[in-house]
Amino acid sequence: MRKTGRNPSRFSLLRDIVTTVAIVFLLALVVLRIGDGSVDVAGRGRAADGDTLTLDGRRIRLKGLDAPEYAQTCRRGGESWNCGAAARARLAELMRVREIVCRTHGHDRYGRLLARCAVGGEDLGARMVREGMAVSYGDYTQEEALAQAERRGLWGGSFDRPQDWRRRNDRPPEEPHDGAAGLVGWLGALLRS
Predict the structure, then answer these.
(1) Alpha-carbon span 19 to 118, nearest angstrom
(2) Which pLDDT score is estimated for 28?
(3) Residues in Cβ contact with 5 at an 8 Å cutoff, skipping those fewer than 6 apart
(4) Is residue 31 within 8 Å of residue 187, measured between CB atoms?
(5) b or e along 94-127 (b: 16 or more beta carbons within 10 Å of the residue's beta carbon)?
(6) What percent of the chain has pLDDT over 90?
(7) Of 82, 94, 112, 143, whose Cβ has the fewest other Cβ atoms within 10 Å?
(8) Strand duo 74-76 + 65-66: pairing
(9) What pLDDT score does 18 carry?
(10) 58 assigned to some structural domain
(11) Which residues 6+ apart lie within 8 Å of 112 measured at CB?
(12) What is the CATH number of the domain that holds 150?
């Protein structure tokens, strides 16, 4: 009795392997051509809140930290204070000094660029967290520990972490700041490792 189903021949198996390798190779070339997507943006900026700024017409979310929302209040010395407005004011003050240079690392869910920004060579995110005007959100854990030990900024009283405040006030959550999305991000990370 003759079988009607096809058995893959060695030729078709070899063809499938070569096709798969070629596709992976082409994807790797695309990822290498795209790189990590990092772009330097420089100029004078304006603070939108304690962790977001506008620079060269682009909205930029500082990567690795989370500042109180503009409408958020905190408690210090038994009194309520507008810690969200204070965080924005401090970021604006830090940016007022010199040109800002940002190295972008992808986009967040709102289309803002995720970036590490510096003024005069000093990392703005590290400074905001070290002064207690923002909390660590994946990075800056040492700066947060120092601010907490010295009871600086937010740590000088009581506050809700911005993520918790957003949840309680029906605001959308802030997504993790990985900056890589989908297959291209995964392949880029794989090829760079």
Answers:
(1) 46
(2) 53
(3) none
(4) yes
(5) bbeeeebbbbbbbebeeebbbbbbbbeeebbbbb
(6) 56
(7) 82
(8) unpaired
(9) 72
(10) yes
(11) 52, 59, 60, 61
(12) 2.40.50.90
Of 149, 129, 151, 153, nearest in space to 141 by CA: 129
Q: How confident is the model at residue 84, as a pLDDT? A: 96
Encode pLDDT of 119-142 as tens digits. Answer: 999 999 999 999 999 999 989 999
CA distance 52 to 62: 6
Cα–Cα distance, 169 to 151 (Å, whole number) = 26
Residue in this structure with the two tokens 């940002």, named with its chain if needed = 102
Tell me if 117 sits within 8 A of 62, measured CB to CB.
yes
Whether the model pTM is above 0.85: no
CA distance 45 to 61: 12
21, part of any domain: no
Note down the domain range covering 137. Answer: 40-181
Q: How far are the Cα atoms of 47, 133, 139, 157, 191 from residue 126, in angstroms, in the given order?
A: 16, 10, 9, 20, 29
Asked whether residue 53 is assigned to any structural domain, the reply reads: yes
- In a domain? residue 16: no
CB 41 within 8 A of CB 60: yes
- Residue ranges of the chain whose pLDDT lies below 70: 1-8, 21-22, 24-38, 176-193
